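Shipment paperwork, digital attachment
Item: protein structure file
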Amino acid sequence: MSKFNDVMKELQKSFNTGVSFMLPSVVVGGIFLALSLSTGEATDTGMNVTNSFMKNLGDLGIAGFTIMIPLLSGFIANSISGKPALAPAMILGYLANTPVGDDGIKTGFLGAMIMGVAVGYFVKWCKTWKVSNTIKTIMPILIIPIVTTLTLGMLYIYVIAVPIGYAMQWLVVQLGNLQGSSAILLGLIIGAMTAVDMGGPINKTATAFTLALMAEGVFAPNGAHRIAVAIPPLAMAISTFIDRKKYSSEDRDLGISAFFMGLIGITEGAIPFAVKDMKRVLPAIIIGSAVGGALGMINNVETLVPHGGLIVLPAVNGKLWYFLAMLIGTLVSVAILHFTKPNLEENMEK
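Attachment content:
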């Protein structure tokens, strides 16, 4: 039991380390993308930014979001077993956040966390190998990175990602069966799926489903989805504003960035909070997003563009309930966080 507790403490430390190195990328990406999209117009393909400078600013924001998941994975592994684990974990973190295989499977931040942990302990095992002094000098820069990346990369592509892909296909079919039969249930499921992995495969499955229905002229499920995408970052932001003793100073600063990301429908703004306190944050944002999605569906809110947040309000049918559903879902999440998250000792002492 003592060994298990030691492993759990090591994992918690590694997750916190990964988040701390990821945070600047999240903040830069979120703020730049928010500024860029705030100048755009809602179109059938999403937010269209025409100003050249703002488009370039948006590209910088996208770059920040692109590297944040590899940074998370890389520094989780680095915390467990040092520098030899950094590059393999960043490569595999990027792989986890990129569509791979014939079905274009992507596992997002959850997959990146799994690969970060896997790399960390695989490299720790590699460092116990008995090799000659000549080989020992090239182990950390050549042998360990190559063996780790190849072994765990192929394991991810052929073993880990495949069942996830099948599960996502099954979910799309099940959601299709619900269409038209139960608005509130469909809204609850879409909202929950949107928040559960914040941009990962489950979230993207909800996106694919709503986009397919949009192509057929059915916009209500997209309304529920686009309400829900904004709730996790908005909830985390407001929670840091009103329950300051429950968050570190770093988290409180991140809350400002998360707020702007919520306004433009960037769910990933909640990822750092979820990584650091998954057992409290995930249930809160899933429930809040489910409530928001259900309210949107039963009030027949329709979002006519494939983007979310308050920034697309001009392209929404049922603007009042779009706003109210987002607000109520956010407040539900904030309330759950208020009653479940403890005050931090460092803040109690101040």
